[in-house]
Design brief:
The protein contains 1 helix and no strands. It is rod-shaped and about 55 Å long.
Amino acid sequence: MLWMESKTQLSIVQSNWRLYESKYLNYISKVKCYERI
C-alpha cells in the first residue's frame, strides 16, 4: 500500500516537473528571441 502511494507521488512529481520544464523552455526561447532583436 505504501509502495503504491509513493509510486503515485512520484508520478505526480514527474508530471509537475514536465510542466515546469516546458514552461522553463518556453521562457528561455522567448528570452533568446528578445536577445536577437
